[in-house]
Amino acid sequence: MKIAIAGGSIAGLACALTLSCTGHEVHVFERSATPLRGRGGGVAVLRQMLRFLEQHGHQTRATLAVPTHRRRWIDIAGNVMHEDPELLPFSSWDAVYRSLCSMLPSAVIQYGRNVTTVAQDAHGIEIQFENGPPIRSDILIAADGTGSRLRSLLFPGTTSSYAGYIAWRGLVSESAFAPAEIADLIENITLFRSADELFMAFLIPSANGSLDAGQRRFNWLWYRNEADLAKVESFLTDRDGQRHHASIAAGALSEHSLAHLRKIAPERLPRILSKLLTSTESPFLQVIYDALSPSFASGRIALVGDAACTLRPHTASGTSKAADDAVSLAQALNASQTAESDTVRVLADWAEVRRRAVEPLLLKGPMLAKSFGLGYS
Ligand SMILES: Cc1cc2nc3c(=O)[nH]c(=O)nc-3n(C[C@H](O)[C@H](O)[C@H](O)COP(=O)(O)OP(=O)(O)OC[C@H]3O[C@@H](n4cnc5c(N)ncnc54)[C@H](O)[C@@H]3O)c2cc1C
User: Fold this and answer.
1) How far apart are CA 189 and CA 83, in angstroms?
2) Could you tell me if the CB of 41 is within 6 A of ligand 1?
3) Is 6 in the pocket of ligand 1 (CB under 6 A)?
4) What is the percentage of the chain residues whose pLDDT exceeds 70?
5) Quick count: other Cβ atoms within 10 Å of Cβ 189?
6) 2-57+95-160+290-371 matches 67-90+162-289 in fold
7) Is ligand 1 within 6 A of the CB of residue 222?
8) Which of 72, 252, 286, 330 is positioned for an S-S bond with 188, CB 3.0–4.6 A?
């Protein structure tokens, strides 16, 4: 089949990979004018994602991740309050993205192609773009993220809902600090919690994927409850005055947001964690939303990744879920290869099974957030 994919990030590329492996003609349309390098911060890479990359020929375990060995809670004075063993591979969004890109022929992905509208009929689907000619395909995969335009087109009235807290984030090179100063942070996921906030930090690979000591970067996230929607609006307005849906990229935070962050960090965080933040050149912001599509398919369109449902970051499952979406969709379509006319039914069946499968993760996120004192209760 000819399969179009809207969105060339983790979920879209994972689908491109599995569907081209099972013999389909795949085209990815990404609205960004250029590859998405440099976006995102650290991600915990769960076993499913590592297995997925390895099954597609990428040797990941040694090159993609910096393992942590302990989950360590500290108090405001920096003393260890509690620690548990935890072996979690951490990587960067960039490293996962690069691995996926490297496994696809570059002609598969077209940049600067913003999907605007779609029209389905009995034989296929017509896809229109903001610029460039329309195309026709047998199936469209909506991998256009948490603010999915396609989800809104298919299911009018469904929107993502603000979860009541935001995540300030940043990356800072390990080499910006004296080794003794950061010795306690190496190999640990370090956490600090106080009322209405949770800070965490861990090491991830360097921007070019190096895992060598001194080259790696600290990834930090500072979750903070923010009930004042006017404040959230102002944080989501970038340095050029443009309002964004859910995030502000590194380098685009307003002066007001930067000043706010740099003022509150030394007041509220243990010294070394505050230093990670104040040493970060370009912090960025992600506002936490919940989104669940009423169905993961409508006719010839399947929704995957954050467009289908956006999991809370505490589950560390977003990329693994995207990989599972891609594998299960390719399996469902492969099994139906002999009956092309059944495409709509196959997608509907896949959607139902998949939605049930992600339900436990959807419930787990708010529960974890609540246990940290985050979000609307
Ligand atoms: C604070 C935070 C921390 C996280 N930590 C982790 C973690 O530790 N581990 C983990 O596994 N996951 C984590 N995640 C989640 C993870 O990043 C995502 O779930 C995962 O990357 C899947 O994203 P996606 O590809 O579905 O969507 P996105 O990455 O949002 O991509 C959507 C793509 O679609 C494009 N697009 C949008 N509209 C259109 C259109 N109309 N036409 C064409 N293209 C379009 C966009 O430009 C974008 O490239 C975290 C998320 C947050 C917010």
Assistant:
1) 10
2) no
3) yes
4) 94
5) 23
6) no
7) no
8) 72
CA of 5 to the centre of ligand 1 (A): 14
Distance 294 CA to ligand 1 centre (A): 19
**Spatial distance between the Cα atoms of 234 and 65, rounded to a whole number of angstroms:** 35
pLDDT at residue 376, as a whole number: 84
Measured from the CA of 307, which atom of ligand 1 is nearest?
26
Give the pLDDT band (50/70/90) at residue 341.
low
Dump the DSSP string for 232-282. HHHHTB-TTS-B-SSEE-TT---HHHHHHHHHHHHHHS-HHHHHHHHT-SS
Q: What is the band of 160 on the pLDDT scale with cuts at 50, 70, 90?
A: confident
How high is the pLDDT of residue 242?
95
C-alpha 59 – ligand 1 centre gap (Å):
23
* Architecture, CATH, for domain 67-90+162-289: 2-Layer Sandwich (3.30)
CB 169 within 8 A of CB 197: no
Q: Is 32 in the pocket of ligand 1 (CB under 6 A)?
A: yes
CA dihedral 257→261→262→266, nearest 10 degrees, is 160
CA of 144, closest atom in ligand 1 = 34
Cα 372 to Cα 125, 195, 272, 291, 376, distances in angstroms? 45, 9, 21, 21, 12
Confidence band of 46 (pLDDT split at 50, 70, 90): low
Q: Is the pTM of this model over 0.85?
A: yes
Close Cβ partners of 53 (under 8 Å, ≥ 6 residues apart): 60, 64, 96, 99, 100
What b-and-e string marks burial along 278-297, b requiring 16 or more CB atoms within 10 Å of the CB?
eebeebbbbbbbbbbbebbb
Q: Output the pLDDT for position 220.
A: 97
The full set of domain ranges for the chain reads 2-57+95-160+290-371, 67-90+162-289
- The total of other beta-carbon atoms located within 10 Å of residue 265's CB is 20
Domain spanning 2-57+95-160+290-371, CATH architecture: 3-Layer(bba) Sandwich (3.50)
pLDDT, tens digit, 9 for 90 and up, residues 50-100: 777 777 776 666 667 777 889 999 999 999 999 998 877 788 888 888 888
